[in-house]
Design brief:
- With 445 residues, this protein is an alpha+beta fold.
- It folds into two domains: 320 residues, T-fold (Roll), CATH 3.10.520.10; 91 residues, ApbE-like superfamily (T-fold), CATH 1.10.3980.
- 31% of the residues lie in helices and 27% in strands.
- Helix 5 runs parallel beside helix 9 and helix 8 packs across helix 9.
- It binds adenosine-5'-diphosphate and magnesium ion (MG).
- The site of magnesium ion has 7 residues, from strand 14 and helix 9.
């Protein structure tokens, strides 16, 4: 082992094992988050932290990296050898000096660069983003955009068509009306139907076109049309950064931005150094009230991914972290573009019927943009609701899980799956723990 490799290896050991990653977030609004927890299958830390077998620079180990983007946080676990990362580090032309970065710093740099690129394109909070410039333009001619922006809009338009407009990025003025966009002035009262109708005149995905040739561009047919990419950009950024890792030869990783996840390959068990598939956890949709925001969320269901030769994605849309309270009304950050209203306006004085709390979409296709699509579909299915959403999910062959709760505490949760969801190896927490117990009993025999 060279001195450089030794240094990398030692530095990497100082980073605590990241067996649990909790996540969430509106794309731009990071203060309130939709949480989704990612758990490695090593069943939390347990006693495994002790007497770990030593790994050499040529052996696989899990490296972690994390950072912030788009008003939320990101987390990654990459299963690689220190040697592999040394090579990537040496080949990285963007390094400003000869300092040797730790494996984690290298990974964070590679991932952050890609994520920042999408923030520069899609942020509605930055006046200089491509989205803000397009929104400010009143021209109905083709407007030049980056290939990435065209690709994001293309996915959004495809999902809009497939969901009868339940997903619609032209919903931007309504998102702002309900204060889920850059306009953060207090909302004193619910908007009137007249106000909503007036704003709806500027909404409708059919008023937007996207092209790639002769050069990437967007075209609005209404001068005042504006777009909001928050419901798809996080997923797209995960795909972009994931593909970057794959291009560098790192094809075993889990990457998550604000609850949207892409994983591929496998990880190594910290104890035995055996390879294990990624297991991702879907959070119980318990409504989070202020001080509970930092509490580790409960997991309702685990999904076991076997993603050896392709990437897999998981995206959850939930109403339990990012919501707004106006008087006794609480509403989610998902706007139904057809009614112009949030999907659910809950009057807290009402008796509580069962309500949709979260929608999770899984994708294990070889589709390169699996996380972007999963992200957008999760929002779309939330808007559609269980009944209509299930119908469309069946028609599309989409893997969708709807979780409804009896009340805010979500002590009682009911599930509705699409048929395709059943092709995944998934278990509720109870089933998962029972299996763990059974395995332990068997191994004792
Ligand atoms: P989640 O992680 O809960 O899915 P996202 O940030 O990914 O949250 O998506 C929700 C965001 O998408 C909203 O904050 C809003 O900006 C935007 N949005 C809301 N309703 C729609 C809709 N019907 N179609 C497209 N985008 C929407
Ligand atoms: Mg989302």
């Amino acid at each position: 082992m060279t001195a450089k490799q030794k240094q990398l290896k030692n530095q990497s050991k100082n980073v605590p094992g990241d067996n649990q990653v909790q996540q969430g977030g509106g794309f731009v609004n990071g203060s309130i988050r939709v949480v989704l927890v990612v758990i490695l299958v090593a069943y939390m830390l347990k006693p495994y932290l002790f007497d770990k077998p030593q790994t050499s620079a040529g052996e696989l180990q899990n490296f972690t990296a994390r950072g912030k983007v788009m008003g939320t946080t990101w987390n990654a676990i990459v299963c690689a050898t220190a040697n592999q990362l040394v090579e990537i580090n040496n080949a990285d032309q963007t390094r400003s000096d000869e300092t040797i970065d730790s494996c984690e710093v290298l990974l964070a740099r590679v991932i952050q660069r890609k994520l920042d690129r999408i923030d520069e394109i899609a942020s509605t909070y930055r006046a200089d983003s491509e989205v803000s410039k397009f929104n400010a333009s009143q021209s109905t001619d083709w407007f030049d955009v980056s290939p990435e922006m065209a690709e994001i809009v293309d996915i959004a338009q495809k999902v809009a068509k497939n969901t009868n407009g339940a997903f619609d990025i032209t919903v931007a003025p309504l998102v702002n009306l309900y204060r889920f966009g850059p306009n953060k002035s207090p909302l004193i009262a619910l908007p009137s139907d007249k106000q909503i109708e007036a704003i709806k005149q500027n909404v409708g995905f059919s008023n937007l076109e996207v092209r790639f040739e002769p050069k990437p561009g967007l075209k609005k047919s209404i001068p005042t049309l504006t777009i909001d990419l928050s419901g798809v950009a996080k997923g797209y950024s995960v795909d972009l950064a994931g593909k970057e890792l794959e291009e560098l030869g790192l094809d075993s990783y889990m990457l998550e931005v604000g609850g949207e996840i892409r994983c591929r390959g496998e990880k190594v068990d910290a104890d035995t150094l055996e390879r294990k598939p990624w297991v991702l956890g879907i959070q119980t949709p318990e409504v989070v009230v202020n001080d509970a925001a930092s509490r580790a969320p409960e997991i309702y269901r685990y999904v076991n991914f076997n993603s050896y030769d392709h990437s897999s994605a998981l995206a959850t849309s939930g109403d339990y972290r990012n919501y707004l309270q106006v008087g006794s009304f609480r509403f989610s950050h998902f706007i139904d573009p057809r009614t112009g209203k949030p999907t659910e306006v809950v009057n807290e004085n009402d008796s509580k019927a069962e309500r949709l709390g979260s929608v999770t979409v899984l994708s294990k296709s070889c589709d390169e943009l699996s996380c972007a699509e999963a992200d957008a579909y999760a929002t779309a299915f939330f808007v559609l609701g269980v009944k209509k959403g299930s119908e469309i999910a069946e028609k599309l062959g989409a893997s969708v899980l709807f979780l409804a709760r009896k009340d805010d505490s979500a002590k009682e949760v009911s599930e509705v799956f699409s048929s395709a969801f059943n092709s995944y190896d998934s278990k509720t927490l109870d089933q998962f723990e029972n299996k763990d117990q059974t395995e332990k009993k068997q191994s004792k025999k």
